[in-house]
Design goal:
Chain lengths: 588, 344
């Protein structure tokens, strides 16, 4: 075995150890730590890990699987129709969250969770109870749960909803793991003892709080939820080790498991010790002061070193990609698209109607409609069997509105001298549109092209706050790779269409292409390629607006617009307000 | 019911606390919208408010929280009926002011109220089962994650919050009952912007941010930890401070009508609103009420520029026209205008 392969194996081994440690800490205090987000597809190693976790949970603790598309009546609770009709009085069936009280909720494909469901889970994690105010039921049930979320997203943009991810203490990644040689034999008895000890762990010293808080700030973690979770992890670690006080190792371990995966920045250490410290692993005791309280400077350094050593290897790439964006990559997704299906979408009330296939019966509303007639109907019913009489005219079916969402993709020429002006106006238009976006359900994206290629400056987003942050830095100058810009816009538009939104591409350029796809300069070739790309856009039947920003519009702009099948508009100063009005009018 | 973190123990977030105290002192302020980062204690603060409020007197067993001094004449539980039969059941009791949580996933029938299913099925009677709006009458209605609530429910809530009356026309029922409550919403801008027309229906708006100061951040952690380790003891150690804040609200309510608003101050507020192009009457009225309530909370007898300065961002920041090319946020714009009009 060569050195590199050995290092890899060792690294995988320590990551596996960490995954097992996280499982143990979680099993000590499931509700306090919120849960574990595990980025891994279905695999033997995931099963191995889950079995290990299952073995050490509190005896008798329920483990419920939750499908990611769960409906509210199963998640929160609803009327049990069969029982209600039989008993003649309302019989409530508890939802999955209440049923999992004291145990674990397991979510596969958690990256597909809607913002709505994630918010319900987050509320239950925060309040440890589930409040139900639906279908005539009003109750509040205890629901102290921990969550294990399998994030099976294939590409980095598919991630757990941020509202949920933030509340889960541990974020693990099984990418690139082999199951060979990995073992998981954890002691259930030790865990039982640790759970009993947890409540008796002494309060953390101020140095520990300070070390965790400043480590979080140091690595750019804004929210205070992360250091809070780290503190609870440290306490669980102390209980697991059979102690009733928190030591420096516990804090290091907690920082490594909880803070490192959340790190957003990696500032250079002050001394020239950029290489991660090899002895930051928890197995080795920190130098010298094991029993005495570590002094705070020292503890802080230890915690920083522990986090730095465990920073995910891809962190720098992520940071580069989101330059100027202070939010973590997991927030890239925004609210999530609403899919247009027969039975899903936002509930939009209930109406009378026949039960056709695909329609969903609104049970309670149907019963309500039938209720006033029961005396009459039962009186007419001679055979003496007492039951609730429901007639077809009582049927009430649920209706769902599928919001028409649209994505406006600005594709802006950032070349030459007027680049800054064009970009500023495009940015203005993006912000104007997003300012009204909640009502109009509009997403906006911004692609800039210049020099050798194109850049996605703002991925499709509905958040004005994010747009402002991302668009605060705009590059400009260089040649005009128009074809590359058109290609990028088409790709984005097609992807948006696949998400069920209607895309509209807005080009801001003077149409003077001078860089071909390969990067070589030359007007004729570049324009021919741009025309071909434009024809590609027409073939995809994408709606577009071509805003010609040339001082004296020439024929190229109009030609391109015709080839795209886009509306042509000469707007030498490309004012944001005027553009917004044109786009509003053109929106599908 | 889980233990609630005491209001007085919330670290920092002075603006949010002030807005909630103002709304508690002057309920006509028109609600509070709290927008900001996750984990900043938005919902903690709102839920903690309940324990601060002085108890309110209601008629026992009235599901619509009728005031014994002025029962609603058409109360569905019969509080307003004249005559001896109704009189003997009218017993007044003190209850804590309701702070009703509108959970995500709430359906319309539970919000506005609906036909009582059980009674209808078992006894064939047509009765009205009041919803959360009735429960929140004379108290607070809190919606966490406003931007995730279904649009039609948000519209309905705002409608009732403004009119003070809930009108139900469904399933053969035709019912109305008073529903005057302070609407408190909270949300996170990462989940999507709020509709502007929705935002300016709230009287006050607050932007909360995670504290940046290290000492404050440590203190947040320390108190939270202490609370989780022993909620009862933690609450006990803060009970006195909490009671003081409660007394402050009660005193401010009593004093509110006596607070003078000098003409010079009214003019100042008009100029401030004009300067910012904040939409007409509503902004000005809210600013005036908020300044008056702030004065009452401080124990002052009349409104001074200091209070106007303090509440102007709360009352005005969400009423500004958006100017996308202006990089500075709305808070900075309000502050700029305040310092221009009021002097530094």
């Amino acid at each position: 075995m060569n050195g590199a392969a050995m290092a890899q194996t060792t690294q995988a081994g320590s990551r596996w150890d960490d995954a097992l440690l996280a499982a143990q800490l979680f099993a000590v205090d499931p509700a306090g730590l919120g849960g574990i987000a595990l980025r891994a597809g279905p695999s033997p190693i995931r099963d191995l890990w889950l079995d290990a976790l299952r073995g050490i949970l509190a005896p008798g603790a329920p483990l419920r699987r939750m499908p990611c598309g769960i409906a509210d009546d199963r998640l929160l609770g609803g009327i049990d129709l069969a029982q209600t009709l039989k008993a003649g009085g309302t019989i409530v069936q508890n939802g999955l969250l209440a049923q999992a009280d004291g145990g674990i909720v397991l979510i596969a494909m958690a990256e597909r969770l809607s913002a709505q469901t994630a918010a319900r889970l987050a509320a239950v994690l925060d309040q440890r109870e589930v409040r139900v105010e639906r279908e005539g039921i009003s109750r509040c049930l205890p629901a102290t749960i921990g969550i294990v979320a399998f994030d099976e997203g294939a590409d980095p943009d598919e991630q757990l909803p941020a509202a949920l991810a933030e509340r889960l203490a541990f974020h693990l990644d099984f990418d690139g793991f082999g199951v060979r040689g990995l073992k998981a034999d954890l002691s259930a008895a030790a865990l039982q003892g640790a759970r009993a000890r947890l409540g008796h762990v002494l309060p953390a010293a101020d140095e520990i709080l300070e070390a965790l808080v400043s480590a979080a700030s140091y690595f750019g973690i804004q929210s205070l939820v992360a250091p809070m979770l780290a503190l609870r992890a440290a306490r669980a670690a102390a209980a697991l080790a059979g102690r009733d006080y928190i030591t420096a190792e516990d804090v290091q371990l907690a920082a490594r498991l909880v803070l490192a995966p959340r790190a957003l920045v990696n500032p250079e250490p002050e001394e020239a010790e950029a290489a991660p410290e090899p002895n930051a692993s928890p197995q080795e005791p920190p130098p010298a002061n094991n029993d005495s309280q570590p002094d705070s400077e020292m503890l802080e350094d230890l915690v920083l070193a522990a986090v730095r050593a465990a920073l995910p290897p891809g962190l720098l790439d992520t940071l580069k990609k989101s330059a100027g964006d202070r939010s973590p990559p997991s927030r890239r997704k925004g609210t999530g698209a609403m899919q247009a299906t027969l039975s899903r979408g936002r509930p939009a009330g209930v109406r009378m109607g026949p039960m056709r296939s695909g329609a969903r019966l609104a049970l309670v509303e149907t019963l309500r409609a039938a209720a006033p007639w029961q005396r009459l109907r039962q009186a007419a019913n001679k055979n003496g069997v007492r039951r609730v009489e429901i007639r077809p005219e009582d049927f009430r079916i649920k209706t769902f509105a599928i919001p028409r969402e649209s994505t406006i993709i600005f594709c802006v020429d950032a070349s030459g001298s007027s680049a800054f002006h064009r970009l500023a106006e495009a940015k203005g238009a993006v912000e104007l549109l997003l300012g009204e976006a909640y009502a109009a359900r509009t997403y906006a994206a911004l692609i800039a092209f210049r020099g050798a290629g194109s850049d996605m400056l703002l991925p499709p987003s509905r958040s004005l706050a994010r747009a402002k942050a991302l668009l605060s830095m705009l590059p400009g100058g260089g040649g005009t790779p128009l074809a590359a810009g058109i290609d990028a816009a088409i790709l984005t538009a097609v992807a948006e269409r696949a998400k069920g939104r209607s895309p509209l591409i807005v080009f801001l350029t003077d149409g003077q292409a001078n860089i071909a796809r390969g990067g070589q300069a030359g007007r004729t070739a570049a324009f021919a390629e741009a025309m071909a790309a434009a024809a590609g856009m027409a073939m995809q039947r994408l709606a577009g607006i071509f805003v010609d920003t040339a001082q004296r519009p020439r024929e190229e702009g109009a030609k391109l617009a015709r080839a795209m099948g886009a509306r042509y508009l000469a707007l030498p100063y490309a004012q944001a307000g005027a553009m917004r009005d044109v786009i509003r009018a053109a929106m599908p | 019911m889980a233990d609630v973190f005491p209001f007085a123990a919330i670290v920092g977030q002075d603006e949010m606390k002030l807005a909630l105290l103002i709304a508690a002192a002057d309920r006509s302020i028109g609600g509070v919208m709290v927008f900001g980062d996750r984990g900043t204690g938005k919902s903690t603060a709102v839920r903690a408010l309940a324990s601060l409020l002085p108890a309110m007197r209601v008629i026992a067993n009235c599901r619509y929280h009728c005031d014994p001094k002025a029962p609603a004449p058409d109360c569905l539980d019969g509080c307003g009926k004249k005559g001896s039969t109704a009189k003997r059941t009218l017993r007044a009791i003190d209850i804590p002011v309701p702070v009703v949580d509108l959970p995500l996933g709430a359906t319309e029938d539970r919000v506005v109220g609906a036909l009582d299913l059980e009674r209808a099925l078992t006894r064939g009677e047509k009765g009205f089962e009041p919803g959360l709006l009735a429960r929140a009458h004379r108290g607070f209605l809190y919606i966490d994650e406003v931007n995730l609530l279904e649009d039609h429910l948000v519209d309905l809530l705002l409608d009732v919050a403004v009119s003070g009356e809930n009108i139900v026309e469904r399933e053969g029922l035709s019912v109305r009952h008073p529903a005057r409550f302070v609407l408190v919403g909270s949300g996170n801008p990462e989940e999507g912007e709020l509709r502007p027309q929705l935002l300016d229906r709230f009287g006050l708006s607050v932007e909360v941010r995670t504290p940046q100061d290290l000492a404050q951040r440590v203190e947040v952690l320390r108190r939270r930890d202490a609370f989780e380790r022993n909620p009862a003891q933690f609450n006990k150690s803060w009970a006195k401070k909490n009671a003081q804040t409660g007394a402050l609200i009660a005193a401010a309510r009593d004093r509110l009508d006596a607070i003078k608003v000098p003409d010079a101050m009214l003019e100042l507020m008009s100029r401030l609103c004009m300067k910012m192009g904040a939409d007409g009457l509503r902004g000005e009225l809210t600013l005036m009420r908020a300044a008056r309530a702030a004065a009452a909370l401080e124990g002052a007898t009349s409104v001074t520029p200091a209070q106007i300065k303090k509440v102007a961002p709360l009352a005005l920041r969400h009423r500004l026209r958006r100017n996308p090319l202006d990089e500075s946020g709305s808070t900075a714009r309000v502050e700029r205008a305040v310092s221009e009009v009021l002097g530094a």
